[in-house]
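Much of what follows relies on a compact textual record of a protein's fold. Each token is a code from a learned vocabulary of local backbone shapes. The record below shows the convention in full.
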Amino acid sequence: MNQILARIKAGDATVVDVRSRMEFMGGNAAGSINFPMDEIEERMEELRNMRNLVLCCASGNRSGMVADFLNASGIPCVNAGSWLDVNYLQNS
């Protein structure tokens, strides 16, 4: 969590929410972008060009799976869990 907090506090994080578009539209972390989990493979090049990826979703399960996949694919990232946790970290 320290690594996530440091990235967010430095303003040096790209927060990617992997929930569906509908979920994202219902509420999201400030400044986050939405790459739904089912689009991750087709958006790998975009992700490869981003720095300090911090992933989130509703609970951390989907973002954890995506983080495992991206890290195994050579795209470093961290799982921040819920988008609500990211909002809390941004405001703490």
